[in-house]
Amino acid sequence: MCRGGPSADAGGMITSAPPVLQAHSLSKTYDSAQALVDAGLTVRPSESVAIMGPSGSGKTTLMHVLSGILPADTGEVQFSPAAGQAPLRMSTMDAEQRARLRREHIGFVFQEGLLLPELTALENVAVALMVSGTPRAAAEQRAAGWLAALGLAGFEQRRPGQLSGGQAQRVAIARAQVNEPAVVFADEPTGALDSATSESVLDALLSSTVSRGAPLVMVTHDESVAARCSRLIRLQDGRVVHDSAEVAA
Ligand SMILES: Nc1ncnc2c1ncn2[C@@H]1O[C@H](COP(=O)(O)OP(=O)(O)OP(=O)(O)O)[C@@H](O)[C@H]1O
């Protein structure tokens, strides 16, 4: 189901809460490739936004610019880590400030979980808190809570090589959520999984993000994955050519 307009909160209530992300006039050129052209997007709490488009249309670049991995050439991304706080303008931040912002307020899930192979599932999740200064014992306690919430109680001491693809991706989701980031970005999070596993991993990703009020912004090539999101954005040649929220407004 694609719902447009104001986002629905965890209880399905319609809200017009202030945006978490507000981006406008974004452009990005690599050498001669124009990856983004005057792109913009506003993302509100509890939305799940699917970004689709042909290969090379700029999906990954848009996600990287929205999350501060890459600076835009022009335009602005305003990010509100907490309700009521003045938005931060990414164009005013240097690479180190953007990296800190990502560490503290943004979660990522990639197609391949990118877990550290020598660490246990518990350590892989806890490390996301420890890099921001949380002591190990407290970090591991919270990590264990997130693993249990994602159906992985009993798997804490396994290393990634001892987990199935779906279990490893749940660990990656727990790692992305453990510091309760203001927004979660996912790049083809189920792209490497079979369809049944993909469905349950997607359930876990959607419920663990949207139920705590954070938006999920997800790049996908899969229409059935996009159909589970509350909103669909389509890119073509670096431009946003369709936004289901605008169509519905
Ligand atoms: N690091 C880079 N250096 C040069 N060109 C790049 C770089 N990254 C992306 N591009 C180019 O920018 C354009 C957009 O790429 P991007 O990866 O954002 O598209 P995409 O929609 O995510 O593609 P795909 O679905 O294939 O992953 C493409 O023309 C691509 O070749």
From TrEMBL:
Keyword Kinase: no
PROSITE patterns: ABC_TRANSPORTER_2
Short name of one Pfam family: ABC_tran
GO function terms (MF aspect): ATP binding
InterPro entries: AAA+_ATPase, ABC_transporter-like_ATP-bd, ABC_transpr_LolD-like, MacB-like_ATP-bd, P-loop_NTPase
Alphabetic keyword roster: ATP-binding, Nucleotide-binding, Transport
Signal peptide segment: none
SUPFAM superfamilies: P-loop containing nucleoside triphosphate hydrolases (SSF52540)
Record-given protein name: ABC transporter ATP-binding protein
Species name: Nesterenkonia aethiopica
